[in-house]
Amino acid sequence: MSHKPSVLFVCVHNAGRSQMAAAFLTTLSKGAIEVRSAGSQPAEKVNPAAVEAMAEVGIDMSAEIPKVLTTEAVKESDVVITMGCGDECPYFPGKRYEDWVLEDPAGKGVDSVRPIRDEIKGRVEALIASLIPASA
């Protein structure tokens, strides 16, 4: 494949769901997919419960920082996955858009974040399968 697919995960604060999805995609795709995440109204820091939940599955998100959503990030991505940012996400024809309806982990403890993390992992695994053909 000459073109490396790119995915942008977007949620309002870029502090929980989109950060976990980006971390899973980065880890599970082993560099075969370019990964970005951003928020329409980024928080000051990544949700500590999300960091802890990801650490439990061996993924370190402690150095991540929420990033602001830019038009350029959307333009440069093949797939844009929104997680509750609705109409605040810019739309460009020819992009693949998906809206993942996921519970917001903001303000929740790690016990409540684990099921959200696990659902995100399953969706990311399906996304990888749709972007990278299985080698026989």
Write up this protein.
The protein has 136 residues and is an alpha/beta fold. The chain is built from 4 helices and 4 strands, in the order E-H-E-H-H-E-E-H. The protein has helices at residues 17-28, 48-55, 71-75, 110-131; strands at residues 6-11, 34-39, 79-82, 96-99. The chain has a 4-stranded parallel β-sheet, covered by helices on one side. Helix 1 (17-28) packs across helix 4 and helix 2 packs across helix 4.
Number of helices: 4
Mean pLDDT: 91
Topology pattern, helix = H, strand = E: EHEHHEEH
> Span from first to last CA?
15 Å
**Widest β-sheet, arrangement of strands:** 2-1-3-4
Give a quick account of the main beta sheet: strands, pairing sense, barrel closure: 4 strands, parallel
Query: Which percent range describes the beta-strand content?
Result: 5-15%
- What are the segments in which pLDDT stays under 50 over at least 5 consecutive residues? none
Helix content: 25-40%
- Strand-pairing-aware structural class: alpha/beta
- Please tally the β strands and state the result: 4
Name the shape in a single word: globular
Q: What gyration radius follows from the Cα positions, in whole Å?
A: 14 Å
